[in-house]
Amino acid sequence: MDEAHRVDAERMRALLATNRVSPAAFRAAQAEVPGAYRDAWVDLIFGLGELADDDCALPSGCVPYLPCPVDTVSKMVTLAEVSEADLFVDIGSGVGRTAALTHLLSGASAIGLEVQPHLVRSSRELLKRLRGSRVAIVEGDAGRLTSLMTIGSVFFLYCPFSGARLEKVLRDLERIARARPIRVCCVDLPLPPCPWLSIVASDGSLEIYRSSAICRS
Ligand SMILES: C[S@@+](CC[C@H](N)C(=O)[O-])C[C@H]1O[C@@H](n2cnc3c(N)ncnc32)[C@H](O)[C@@H]1O
Questions:
Q1: Using a 6 Å cutoff on CB, does residue 62 contact ligand 1?
Q2: Could you tell me the distance, in angstroms and rounded to a whole number, from the CA of residue 3 to the centre of ligand 1?
Q3: DSSP string spanning 98-131?
Q4: What is the helix (H) or strand (E) element at residue 144, kind and residue range?
Q5: Using a 6 Å cutoff on CB, does residue 75 contact ligand 1?
Q6: Are 150 and 182 in contact, with CB atoms under 8 Å apart?
Q7: What are the tens digits of pLDDT across the range 75-119?
Q8: Residue 131 Cα to ligand 1 middle (Å)
């Protein structure tokens, strides 16, 4: 990243630590950064360094931590029309980067579900730095926790797992969608057939689904 954008990132970091920055102001600042620098710009603002190794708490068959590219998160916020009225749930939230970034871009409240304790600790440190009172991280297996996220309205999955655990999470989301419509956003994650979900937008590896009306019986 060049010096001008590094200085700009430091300025935004200081602003976030002392002030509330509106989603419109954050989006405008991010739009000024060339695409090639955007991930580094966000990492500098968030104070994120090298990725830590995954630990033995990652259940077998689950995918290690890899941050979702900033441009994919921005597209998701736009295509899924995430707003401050939403509660965004990142299923497998890593260091909390996508949850925090979605909050800054949209004003939505956010919850991350993460199974690896060292990533949960990093997320909570990040939230302290950002004074992100509307973002929280819950530690545990999302295969068990998702059913508790009944107030979630937008659910995000950047390929955390597949197979039986994904099928269980999708059944839990279907149950949540019986009470209220939800959006499900997937990156690099082909879903098994879900008649209660309709795809409404896609862009590269990103797919956005909306739940259709489901009978409560
Ligand atoms: C590909 S990364 C995605 C990280 C994050 N969502 C993002 O957008 O940057 C997958 C994450 O899911 C987490 N994960 C995998 N299996 C999980 C499970 N069963 N419960 C909770 N988190 C899980 C991993 O520890 C990892 O942090």
A1: yes
A2: 33
A3: HHHHHHHHH--EEEEEE--HHHHHHHHHHHHHHT
A4: helix 142-145
A5: no
A6: no
A7: 999 999 999 999 999 999 999 999 999 999 999 999 999 999 999
A8: 23
State the pTM of this model: 0.95
Contact assessment for residue 40 and residue 67, using Cβ atoms and an 8 Å cutoff: no
Q: Which two tokens stand for residue 117?
A: 């304790």
User: Which atom of ligand 1 is closest in space to residue 67's alpha carbon?
Assistant: 9
All structural domains of the chain with their residue ranges? 1-47, 52-211
Instruction: Judge whether 214 and 178 are in contact, CB under 8 Å.
Output: yes
- Domain 52-211, CATH class in plain words: alpha beta
CA of 215 to the centre of ligand 1 (A): 31
Percent helix, strand, coil in the chain (nearest 5)? 45, 20, 35
With a cut of 70, which residues of the chain have pLDDT below it? Answer: 132, 214-217
